[in-house]
Design a protein that fits this description.
Blueprint (H helix, E strand, L loop, with lengths): L1 H28 L2 E7 L1 H4 L9 H11 L4 E7 L5 H11 L6 E5 L2 H5 L4 H17 L3 E5 L9 H7 L2 H9 L2 E3 L22 H24 L6
Parallel strand pairs: 1-2, 1-3, 3-4, 4-5
Helix pairs in contact: 3-9, 4-6, 6-8
């Protein structure tokens, strides 16, 4: 009788182990999910979605052998405080990392950098509290805003990154800002070539971000 009772129990245990193994294997094989959370520079204003920053970044990473999924969570015209307001419903379950690209509209409108600092700090802290890795994309003040404004605005990004212990890409528009060849006629939004230049510049930092996800046992390990 004991043998007869033990057989179903053993079969159940084996089935449970098989299901657990299958679930773990599927989780490990899932692409690393990165959300690009930002404004029009992320959304790709004036460009087809296939040429926007998230799409070009995903293509570049996959070309380098990374199994990733980059989600476009950019909203044109958005400031850092507005981004904070929609953060919780903009980052879907299963997100491994977030590239935070906000602050350009705060700067263009001459808003108080203290408000930008508070909003970005809270965004980073909320993401970290959920176990999500963060890459903060920095911004720099336009020259016409003056040295005093730049002295208050520019340090916001490196100081938050150092304070919160997250990765930093110092200037999202590095090598692109001010270039007629790399921007649309408004000279504010990169064209497809400009986005490609941004991707080439930020790529090593995003690979570092992926490395952090894998080191902590995230998707794709």
């Amino acid at each position: 009788m004991r043998g007869r009772r033990a057989a179903p129990a053993l079969a159940f245990a084996l089935a449970a182990l098989l299901a657990l193994f299958t679930f773990a294997s599927e989780a490990a094989a899932r692409p690393i999910r990165i959300v690009a959370f930002g404004d029009s520079l992320t959304e790709g204003l004036g460009l087809p979605k296939s040429q926007a920053f998230p799409a070009q970044l995903e293509a570049a990473l996959r070309a380098r052998g990374h199994e990733v999924e980059i989600l476009n969570a950019g909203v044109s015209g958005e400031t850092a405080p507005q981004g904070l307001m929609r953060l919780d419903w903009s980052i879907p379950p299963g997100t491994d990392a977030v590239i935070v690209e906000l602050g350009a509209n705060d700067m263009l409108r001459g808003q108080n950098p203290d408000g930008t600092r508070r909003a970005l700090t809270e965004i980073v802290r909320r993401l970290k509290a959920k176990g999500i890795f963060v890459l903060l994309a920095g911004m720099q003040a336009a020259p016409n805003l003056g040295a005093d404004y730049a002295a208050r605005f520019d340090p916001v990004f490196p100081e938050i990154a150092a304070q919160e212990g997250v990765l930093l890409y110092p200037f999202f528009l590095e090598g692109v800002a001010g270039s007629r060849a790399l921007n649309q006629p408004d000279m504010l939004h990169p064209n497809a070539r400009g986005v490609a230049a941004i991707v080439a510049g930020i790529l090593p930092k995003v690979e570092e971000l992926i490395g952090e996800v894998k080191a902590k046992g995230g998707a794709g390990k």
